[in-house]
Amino acid sequence: xxxxxxxxxxxxxxxxxxxxxxxxxxxxxxxxxxxxxxxxxxxxxxxxxxxxxxxxxxxxxxxxxxxxxxxxxxxxxxxxxxxxxxxxxxxxxxxxxxxxxxxxxxxxxxxxxxxxxxxxxxxxxxxxxxxxxxxxxxxxxxxxxxxxxx
Length: 150
Known about the structure:
Elements: E1 2-5, H1 11-21, H2 35-38, H3 43-51, E2 55-62, E3 65-73, E4 77-83, H4 92-104, E5 108-114, H5 118-123, E6 127-135, E7 138-146
Parallel strand pairs: 4-5
Antiparallel strand pairs: 1-2, 2-3, 3-4, 5-7, 6-7
Helix pairs in contact: 1-3
């Protein structure tokens, strides 16, 4: 088990992981992702984030399998945090989050959380920072986390 920087050859595995969990964004079962969201989950979109100097992308690797992924747009917008269903509840998201805090050296983070993930972000110290937003069957909660001066 290790946390490491995501590299270009990780894109297919990261894409599969995130797409396998993207249904958690949807308000109802049986719906499909809207095109604007689907466009952010393409191979090209992941590759663009991995090669963007303003993005930090980390993976949690278990024996060569990527089971966790976090992406932060610097200085402190948490863009993605996903852990494979079979590995949830084992502290992987917290380990990824702690690594991001160390590497970003930022005192303030924001996230547009899926409704499903609000409890996870709340445990990390995020608080709701606005009303729930909804777009094309996808609801989200703006949240922020102030870490204080380091």
